[in-house]
Amino acid sequence: CLNVCPVYQNIGGHSYKTTYSGPIGSIITPHTDGMKEFKHLSYASTLCGKCTEVCPVKIDIHKMLLLNRRDAVKEGLSPKVEQWSWSIWKKSMLSRKLTDFLGGKWKNRLMKFAINKTWGKHRELPQVAEKSFSKQWLERQKGEPDA
User: Can you give the pTM of this predicted structure?
Assistant: First the structure.
């Protein structure tokens, strides 16, 4: 898996600072040497799945990395700001009224403010539609004659 891992190819083995480097080391080390100290290794992956494809013993490596990430979150090892942000996101996504409260322009501004410094540096931010699906659906229903 080392030969196909784009992260390992770019940073090399010494930067892992563990006995086992590469994708397998990223899975094992947090469990053997402590999740708090080595949870970051689970994020040293593009999750492209190349390691899983070439694994001779068919270890689902990228899934194991995701499970490590989940375990770190369950142990409360993610930053408080991240926990708070995901909590707000979850509540708003579970409530249609909260989701539709702001229009698309405001949602785009809020997203740019919230994640532009981290996610937006390296990727183009997605754009939220001006009208939500539910608003478009209601407008369409009102425009159609009763059957």
Answer: 0.64
